[in-house]
């Protein structure tokens, strides 16, 4: 089956989600797998190997990961890979393809799992980076191999590994470390150049503005527990910015949802949305609980991108669906008529930058005036207003998004 990863395509499936689905087993069988990627980043490896689906797979089954070192893969990546290797040992084997052929770039991107008696092979254009797995426009195919095809594939794969064994280096190999450091320096310089260019291009270009009020929603205090996958990215943050940061940049034509968050007692961080918002904006599919993931990064009041939040798109039997917001953790719901406001910027398929604006924040009045002008309050219903970044920037120039 052929798929396209494209944040502006209604039928988009991300490479990240396809990999998780392929690794999901329904039978208690001894399985194994392997993945080969030209480039990898700390954020990309975390997305895959810190997800509960892969944790479950690696708890019982071996997996071999091979990454290239010709570009992008850097010191930060190696640190994360060592951490994951040690966490899952002996089931996770990590090798780096290190070749001295300057005229040939190591450039494959594929991953496979032998699960439930079949081999599920994903071959595509996306690398093991946050951009490649989620935001870039990529394409990939999923092939299910059985019987003779499966045996032929395994024989072919083993032949390639055996003939390239001298090029498959350990993470602590001196040449691997040297090349990773070179890539780290290159990307640190590249990020500084990007920032300088951004400062020179501050003027906005006009584009069509779309403002659509969504159906307001009644308050519903029902709470459904949602899983969380945490990330921890050590070492130089600037290296992360150089590649994975690109998955979280803000463009003027991106969709924006402004949503009042209802009171659900001490668990109001599990924000309640109806089906129209869940499917139309967040990209969930009602009644489907496959390995879809909503990714979020909160922007602090000072404009800092917080840690990645990974949420399953949980579909429940009621008419409400929930997205858990880490920014609301440990905060009591405010008293009075003023409600917390969540502002979500859709940067890619099921990927969002968001900010939780509380009534005691200095920016709250600017946001509530904007919301009142376009969608006045009706009783106790929660307002949901859809716009775009350009209009949001024009009406709320002091938001923390613009400090990133």
From TrEMBL:
Indicate what this protein is called per its UniProt record. PLD-like domain-containing protein
Which Gene3D superfamilies does the record cross-reference, listed alphabetically?
Endonuclease Chain A
């Amino acid at each position: 089956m052929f798929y396209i990863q494209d944040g502006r395509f209604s039928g988009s499936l991300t490479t990240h989600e396809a990999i998780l689905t392929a690794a999901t087993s329904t039978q208690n069988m001894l399985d194994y797998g392997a993945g080969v990627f030209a480039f990898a980043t700390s954020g990309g490896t975390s997305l895959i190997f810190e997800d509960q689906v892969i944790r479950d797979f690696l708890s019982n089954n071996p997996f071999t990961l091979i990454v290239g070192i010709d570009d992008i893969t850097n010191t930060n990546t190696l640190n994360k890979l060592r951490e994951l290797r040690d966490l899952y040992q002996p089931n996770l084997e990590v090798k780096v393809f290190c070749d001295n052929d300057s005229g040939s770039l190591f450039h494959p991107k594929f991953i496979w799992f032998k699960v439930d008696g079949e081999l599920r092979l994903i071959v595509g254009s996306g690398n093991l980076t946050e951009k490649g797995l989620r935001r870039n426009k990529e394409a990939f195919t999923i092939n299910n191999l059985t019987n003779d095809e499966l045996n032929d594939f395994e024989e072919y794969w083993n032949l390639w590994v055996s003939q390239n064994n001298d090029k498959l280096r350990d993470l602590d190999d001196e040449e691997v470390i040297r090349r990773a450091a070179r890539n780290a320096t290159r990307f640190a310089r590249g990020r500084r150049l990007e920032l300088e260019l951004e400062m020179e291009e501050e003027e906005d270009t006009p584009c069509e503005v779309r403002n659509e009020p969504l159906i307001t929603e009644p308050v519903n205090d029902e709470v459904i527990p949602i899983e969380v996958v945490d990330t921890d990215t050590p070492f130089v943050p600037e290296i992360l910015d150089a590649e994975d940061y690109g998955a979280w940049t803000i463009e003027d034509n991106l969709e924006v949802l402004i949503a009042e968050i209802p009171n659900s007692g001490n668990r109001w961080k599990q924000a309640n949305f109806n089906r129209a918002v869940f499917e139309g904006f967040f990209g969930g599919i009602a009644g489907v609980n496959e390995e879809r993931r909503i990714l979020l990064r909160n922007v602090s009041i000072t404009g800092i991108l917080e840690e990645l939040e990974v949420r399953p798109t949980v579909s429940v039997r009621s008419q409400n669906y929930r997205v858990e917001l880490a920014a609301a953790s440990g905060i009591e719901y405010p008293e009075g008529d003023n409600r917390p406001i969540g502002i979500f910027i859709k940067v890619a398929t099921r990927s969002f930058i968001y900010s939780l604006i509380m009534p005691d924040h200095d920016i709250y009045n600017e946001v509530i005036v904007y919301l009142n002008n376009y969608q006045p309050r009706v009783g106790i219903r929660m307002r949901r207003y859809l716009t775009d970044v350009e209009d949001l920037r024009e009406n709320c120039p002091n938001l923390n998004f613009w400090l990133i």
